[in-house]
Design goal:
With 271 residues, the protein is α/β, with parallel strands linked by helices. Helix content is 28%, strand content 17%. Helix 3 links the parallel strand 6 and strand 7. It binds flavin mononucleotide (FMN) and iron/sulfur cluster (2 copies). One iron/sulfur cluster (SF4) is lined by residues 194, 211-213, 215-216, 224, 228-234.
Length: 271
């Protein structure tokens, strides 16, 4: 092993923090250099990333609708070339459930030519609301991530050519979770886009620069001509609090989550 990598798509920062914490601990414990790769902006997802069997790659994505973010799946499937590198699969989820996202990520990484040695699902504050998993990952989550990294180093010492891929729960081919509203009925908000409060907006352009889909018009940030995946990056990164969603179906889903999924969930790891 020559190098540790921390690679993530992370719209609101949880996955980046999680992947980084695990990778930093691995690098420290193994005495190896660490390189970070952000896979969040469109330009970052246009590049090709090739690894070798001397690399250990910690790679993460948030859970969207119980799976990997569907619009980014093709990038995860085509931009990474494992070439026999070892991989640690990491998903974050906002306290409802990670359902099938970790199993899907493991399958994608194996398909990319990685050998998955460990997998983990970690709780992060829900991108949609501060009321689910507020402040997570917090100190005890970071502690658990470091413990996970230590257990990975032990596993690496005992790894053989015949060690199989890590088994994560779930079904990589399962359908997406169907969001529900407060009345328990399915809601559709695929077409919802963020609005802009022009009395607060200073036209700094940050939202347009940061949108993972390049969906916001940089010349008129109140216009969203591209595909919005509801990642909340623009809402969370706008320091003026000018971006918001007012779609009724979306807000009903958020309320339903707040009513039913407030009980703190635990992180889960698999080796
Ligand atoms: C579009 C979308 C769908 C989501 N779906 C789920 C879900 O199915 N289950 C869940 O527990 N959290 C869900 N979340 C919450 C995220 O998984 C969670 O906030 C994650 O840590 C965000 O990662 P990031 O900060 O790296 O972007 C969803 C968030 C978004 C934006
Ligand atoms: S980040 Fe906020 S203040 Fe800046 S252009 Fe976007 S909406 Fe306006
Ligand atoms: S416009 Fe949509 S896709 Fe772009 S940052 Fe905002 S929520 Fe995410």
């Amino acid at each position: 092993m020559e190098k540790i990598w921390a690679v993530s798509y992370s719209a609101t920062g949880n996955t980046d923090k999680t992947v980084r914490t695990i990778a930093e601990e691995l690098a420290a414990k193994l005495g190896l250099p660490l390189e970070r790769v952000s896979f969040t902006k469109p330009s970052e997802r246009e590049k090709e990333y090739s690894f070798t069997e001397n690399d250990l790659v910690v790679i993460g994505t948030p859970t969207y609708a119980g799976k990997m973010p569907n619009k980014l799946l093709p990038d995860f499937q085509s931009r990474f070339h494992g070439n026999g590198a070892l991989a640690v699969a990491v998903v974050t989820f906002g306290n409802r459930n990670y359902d099938n996202s970790l199993a899907e990520l493991c399958a994608v990484l194996e398909g990319d030519g990685f050998h998955t040695v460990a997998a983990g699902a970690f709780v992060g504050q829900h991108a949609f609301t501060d009321e689910l998993a507020y402040g997570r990952p917090g100190w005890s989550d970071l502690f658990e991530m470091k413990e996970f990294a230590k257990r990975i180093t032990v596993k690496l010492k005992n790894l053989t050519d015949t060690s199989g891929p890590v088994k994560a729960p779930g079904d990589a081919a399962a359908p997406y979770y169907v969001p529900k509203g407060v009345d328990g009925q399915p809601v559709k908000f695929l077409k919802a886009k963020p609005k802009t409060d022009l009395s607060k907006c200073t036209n700094c352009g940050a939202c347009a620069r940061l949108c993972p889909m390049g969906a916001i018009d940089p010349k008129d940030v109140s216009s969203v001509p591209g595909t919005c995946i509801k990642c909340q990056r623009c809402v969370r990164k706008c320091t003026k609090g000018a971006k918001y969603f007012d779609d009724e179906a979306f807000l009903s889903h958020v309320k339903m989550l707040e009513q039913n999924f407030a009980e703190p969930r635990e992180n889960e790891t698999f080796l």
